[in-house]
Amino acid sequence: PPPPPPPPPPSSFSKSMADDLPPEDVMVWTDRDGITYKISFQHAKLLYIVSHYARASIKDNQPETWMRQLQLDVLIFEGILARKLDFDYAPESTIQPIIEEEAVRCVRQYMNISQEGRSAIYDLTEQGFLNTLRLPSTNLLSTIALQASHKGMRLLDALPPLLRYDVDEFLFSKPGHMRAFLKDMHPVRDLKHVIIDEQGFLIVTENGFEERSEVLFIEDISYVTSPFLPWSLRRSEAQMRDNSTRAWESGNGKSQVQGDLHESLILSQVHAILMEWVPMSANEFGCHQHRTHFTRDDILRRSLPGKV
């Protein structure tokens, strides 16, 4: 009988995180299992940032390192202001832990969050370049920690030097509040770290650099709104005030936006309806607790905060 045919070559297919980008903004990388990935430069830079602070252990006696997503959000904002990350940002209500002498106290503040940056984190996690870990706290709130996986570190071995330089230029600082150059920077002592205190976020290094982050500074823009309620919720037929004739006034106002943001969606005649919602499962109740920021003590007292 004739000899059996040779086995087929290992399957190779492509996974993309940069479908809508030009080729000059995309890096193509093939893993050792034969799978080819198309990764945008912004995804690669974000992975490179995480690798400075958190990596998966290679040996059994090597400890695991993780970084909290809240600190990463601050670093992403700093990279946007330094024009090294091409993301947008917008204010979002967040819960920040304040470490005190005997306990951890949580406060809710508005913070400039990049949804594009978080979407890139989800992409990297889905493709296996980042590992995630959910950490619970004593007040029943949870946070997410991140680290570069073994697969992600293999990808960074092929990262172009220009991308490394863009990230290192804002991620490191020399003593004396001067920007570090690649030939002079120390990989540990000049690396910026994010510390949370009563006043917000402080960026420090072991070499004495200290700077207050502006991530809590909410940029104001001018706008005109009008109240709206559906007819089913109104107790009379009285008309609500319509301020549409004053829309032109927003064009004469000032804007505090620091960066050049991308306009993804422009809306006109928008109706925003607020509705009541009752959680019906444990997961929904946990999500409701995280958003409304009530703690375990509130649960034990069977009371919710009156102000959200």
Mean pLDDT figure: 78
For the biggest sheet, the summary is:
3 strands, mixed
Which regions are unreliable across 5 or more consecutive residues at pLDDT < 50?
8-13, 175-181
Q: What gross morphology would you assign?
A: globular
Beta strand %: 15-25%
Strand order of the largest sheet: 1-3-2
Q: N-to-C SSE series? A: EEEHEHEEHEEHHEEEEEHH
Computed Rg = 24 Å
SSE blueprint:
Elements: E1 14-16, E2 26-30, E3 36-40, H1 41-53, E4 67-68, H2 69-81, E5 90-99, E6 104-113, H3 115-126, E7 130-136, E8 142-148, H4 150-156, H5 161-171, E9 173-174, E10 178-179, E11 193-197, E12 200-204, E13 210-212, H6 282-292, H7 296-300
Parallel strand pairs: 1-3
Antiparallel strand pairs: 2-3, 4-8, 5-6, 7-8, 9-10, 11-12, 12-13
Helix pairs in contact: 1-3, 1-4, 1-5
Write structural notes for this entry.
With 308 residues, the chain is an alpha+beta fold. Helices cover 23% and strands 21% of the residues. The strands form five sheets. The chain has a three-stranded mixed β-sheet with strand order 1-3-2. A three-stranded antiparallel β-sheet has the order 4-8-7. Strands 11-12-13 form a three-stranded antiparallel β-sheet, with helices on one face. It starts with 13 loop residues before the first strand and ends in an 8-residue tail after the last helix. About 4% of the residues have low confidence.
